[in-house]
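Board work, copied verbatim: Mannose-P-dolichol utilization defect 1 protein homolog
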Amino acid sequence: MMYDDSRNKNKAMDPTGSDYFSCDHAWPNLLGVYNWPITSIPVPCLKIVVSKALGIGIILGSVLVKLPQIIKLMGAKSAEGLSFNSVLLELLAITGTMVYSMSNKFPFSAWGEALFLMLQTVTIGFLIQHYGRRTSIGLSFLVIYFSLLGVLLSPVTPMSVVTTMQASNMPAIIIGRLIQAATNFRNGHTGQLSAISVFLLFAGSLARIFTSLQETGDSLMALTYVISSTCNCIIALQVLYYWNSSPEHKKKKKKLLLFKT
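↓ predict structure ↓
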């Protein structure tokens, strides 16, 4: 089957070769509305469908991706092992992506998870302060953050500032993840870091490399997710490496060593 770009870049011949159909028809075809075989859908249309499906899946998953982390913190009433500086840098990166995408009017399926990740990351940041007996600092953090977010989303902020903020995501992600990795290494365990959240974040950032290229064509967005995936992979590997280690296990080990000496 040939894809005829001269007629319309979003159209292709139907399986009978008699007419053209829009790539929008690929969705109902996959759902069984049409009886055309999936191999009859042009590759460009399949890419669009796969990208949209991944984008929607990532957004739906992002609603709950950090919930295990929040539940773990609240259950333990402790934020041991989590770095507030790392959370701040992660929040900077998420906010940059969200503001940049909204300013460029990218489709929600290309960045929607940033909204839900932002809300959950802000909650984690507050809980770290709260369980560190610094609730007033946590409340101040919430007020300052949402005030700054309002300014960034307003027409007052020039596009050049938004673009610079998106470009700064890369060093922010790298530094933030390295801080968390260093904290894990120093402690000899991952503390209250949720394995489920870590693995979901890694999978989501990997899938976003494809969807950002397909839906936005923005190389800066794609590069950000490449770096994010690499950094998330490091944390995921640490979770696996320290799987049988825990704060309680380390404390018991120290007590045994002191007792022997």
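Strands lie at 11-13, 20-22.
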